[in-house]
Amino acid sequence: MALEAISKIQEAEASAKNIIDKAVIESKEIIRNAEIKAKNEYDRIIEEASKKSKELKDNALAEGIENSKPAHQKGDADVNAILNTSEEKIDSAVNLVIGRIVKFNGNS
């Protein structure tokens, strides 16, 4: 009877050890799967954030270009006005400047 009890205790201990060993293996597998899922989710979030960042940057650049068009057009118009100044106006301006220089230096 004592041997039978000892035998049942040993069987129970062996069974408990098997259960614990399986639990340890399963817990390691669960942890490994969780780490893989976490990494995949992290990568997905980073990729999504990068796409959103690029989209925001592209939109801001397009908006900046659009907002600068009036200033650019005005600058082009000013350049064209200067380039299309008549020889008569240029000669008049040169003579005016020369006259002022001569008058200023003549009074010294």
Portion of residues within helices? over 70%
Annotation, overall tally of beta strands:
0
Order of helices and strands: HH
Radius of gyration: 44 Å
Contiguous helical run count: 2
Residue share in β-strands: under 5%
Largest sheet: none
| Through-space gap between termini | 138 Å
Average predicted local confidence, pLDDT: 92
Shape: rod-shaped
How would you describe this structure to a colleague?
The protein is mainly α. The protein has one domain. It contains two helices and no strands. The protein starts with a helix and ends with a helix.
Give the topology.
Elements: H1 2-83, H2 87-106
Main features:
single chain; 108 residues; mainly alpha
In short, what is this structure?
This protein has 108 residues and is mainly alpha-helical. 94% of the residues lie in helices and 0% in strands. It is built from 2 helices and no strands.
